[in-house]
Amino acid sequence: MIEIPHFKDLEIENILFDYNGTLATDGYLKEETKVLLKEVCEKYNVYVITADTFGTVKEALQAFELEVLVLSSRDHTKEKADFLSKLNSEKTVALGNGNNDARMLKDAILSIAIMGDEGCAKETLLASDIVCKEIGSAMELLLKPQRLIATLRR
After folding, report:
1. pLDDT (mean) for 75-86
2. Which SUPFAM superfamilies does this entry report, sorted A to Z (predicted)?
């Protein structure tokens, strides 16, 4: 349990990542991201949900203990939010950057928008609790919860 004064008490079990623009750039993970993702996978149940724009997600993530869901509907915003709901939004942190991530971030117990190389859609930025300049900083927040407390306490 992470108790954040005058914000929320967080009992985090799941981490739900968007892939392109969040975990990956142009379909590929940076080396630093791989190291931190391995640590996050050891601590939480990890899920990656993506349209897989570059067709690389399954190969790029095959070495990690996580579940990948490639979107199949015509409404990716709804599909992402519905998947979050199945995981239990009250115990799931969502991370994303695109317009189709905004509802997923809004519904999660804690949401982190990633600026990254692609930038971040305005709606997703406004739906987030925290904004990080890159995915490494966001994963460090998950691995070092005192940073969450320092940022979110009121």
Report:
1. 97
2. HAD-like (SSF56784)
Q: Is the dihedral of CA 93, 133, 144, 18 positive or negative?
A: positive
What is the per-residue pLDDT for 56? 97
DSSP label of 26:
T
Q: Which amino acid is at 80?
A: K
52 CB-side CA count, 13 A: 15
- Choosing among 1.10.8.420, 3.40.50.1000, 3.30.1380.10, 3.40.50.300, the CATH entry for 44-152 is 3.40.50.1000
pLDDT at residue 122, as a whole number: 98
CB-neighbour burial class of residue 146 (10 A; exposed 0-12, middle 13-18, buried 19+): exposed
Which tens digit of pLDDT belongs to each residue from 6-44? 999 999 999 999 999 999 999 999 999 999 999 999 999
In this structure, are residues 127 and 111 in contact, taking their beta carbons and an 8 Å threshold?
yes
